[in-house]
Design goal:
Two copies of one chain form a homodimer. With 150 residues, chain A is mainly alpha-helical. In chain A, strands 1-3-2 form a three-stranded antiparallel β-sheet. In chain A, a hairpin with a 7-residue loop joins strand 2 and strand 3. The first copy, chain A, is globular and about 50 Å long. Chain A starts with a helix and ends with a helix. In chain A, 25% of the residues are buried. Chains A and B meet through helix 1, helix 6 and helix 7 of A and helix 1, helix 6 and helix 7 of B. Chain A binds a DNA duplex (30 and 30 nucleotides) through helix 1 and helix 4.
DNA sequence: ATAAATTAGTTGTAAGAACAACGGTTGCCA
DNA sequence: TGGCAACCGTTGTTCTTACAACTAATTTAT
């Protein structure tokens, strides 16, 4: 069944990260943001939330944990004091090799016995579907709002 | 990025179900088990856990909630008193049309602008990847066990 | 220029899930 | 037959997340 397969893959990724990271003092949710920051240092929380389609509260809490562990710093933007940007510390950069290695290992795990061609098509389709889901999220919000108003 | 796309789809499905089901008194996690039971009434909890690759404790708690709502009954197997099978009640069957409709709607949402051919290939690849993940879960457990033992 | 609306981030609450320790059954086997 | 291992389900804890209500800062409109 499609739903359970997708769910198994998504949860499997979390379990994989969680088990492999046990010794490094960071969790699965944290490492996902961390890896993004390696390519997009100084991101705003709102932008992180939009990229991952995660609730902004969820982003806030995960970044707080990374800050407490001194893996990132969060700095208020002087030009717009509503904003905070997250910056990697030396301790954060020290984890980069471990994190990218884990991502590589996870991809190898997923794509065992799958041709490069098949993988390419898969990634493209996944991206299209994620876009469909993202667009429609707003429609469900409207449904939800109406149900609440009545 | 592949990881975030898969995560967006999986979480999107949960959000979709949750928002649409608000009025029916059942939650996203519950409806997934419910739909499976329509095709596999009288399932053992262990079998549900294996099918969905969910922790048996998670299955136990979700079934308890469905039982409390009188959507299923859980009956101890007289031949093996360790086992409980979950059976749909009339109230459970009354929700079948709503549930299957929601699944259809979700599939339509995901596959907008995606050809039948592309969808078939996608589902096949997702299934292969889920199988890869499932197989490798055991390996990570061993890694985990060794790390703990040392 | 001030009031209203929008935007960014925070926090409390609740659902979903993994993990680990536990208790009762059953099966095995010595 | 008696003990031990394997199996099935339960429960407490923790992590991840969505949602909603909130504060503070900025922008827009009158």
């Amino acid at each position: 069944m499609l739903h359970s397969d997708l769910s198994i893959i998504a949860r499997g990724s979390e379990t994989f990260m969680s088990r492999c990271l046990g010794d490094f003092g960071i969790t699965a949710a944290e490492v996902i943001l961390l890896i993004y920051l390696y390519g997009h240092d100084n991101s705003r929380q709102e932008d992180l939330a939009e990229y991952f389609m995660l609730d902004k509260g969820t982003i806030a809490k995960t970044l707080q944990k990374l800050e407490k562990k001194e893996i990132i710093e969060r700095i208020v933007n002087k030009e717009d004091q509503r904003e905070k940007v997250s910056c990697l510390t030396d301790k954060g950069y020290a984890l980069q090799d471990v994190c990218t290695d884990l991502v590589r290992l996870w991809h190898e795990t997923m794509f065992q016995g799958i041709t490069a061609e098949e993988g390419k098509i898969f990634e493209r389709t996944v991206h299209k579907i994620a876009a469909n889901v993202t667009e429609n999220l707003e429609k469900w919000e409207h449904v939800y709002g109406r149900a609440n108003a009545s």
